[in-house]
Design goal:
The chain is an all-alpha fold and 67 residues long. Helices cover 48% and strands 0% of the residues. The longest helix is centred in the N-terminal third of the chain and has 12 residues.
């Protein structure tokens, strides 16, 4: 038996039709919830990866961004 992973938008009309078809066909469906990262989690990952910039004022920041 093979396992396939299909990602669907639950709110889309076509996705609901596909799910209904699969269920009526006797195919076993397992719903897996994905957790989105919060802004804080993303920010902490940026800090750990070194994707953080420091500037003494706005002019300094703009100079860094244009460089």
């Amino acid at each position: 038996m093979a396992t396939y992973t299909i990602t669907l938008n639950e709110n889309a009309k076509n996705s609901k039709a596909i799910l209904t078809y699969l269920q009526q066909s006797g195919i076993r469906i397992q719903k897996v919830e994905t957790q989105r990262k919060t802004g804080l989690e993303k920010a902490l990952e940026d800090i750990e990866a070194g994707r953080v910039y420091e500037a003494k004022d706005v002019d300094d920041l703009i100079t860094q961004l244009n460089a």
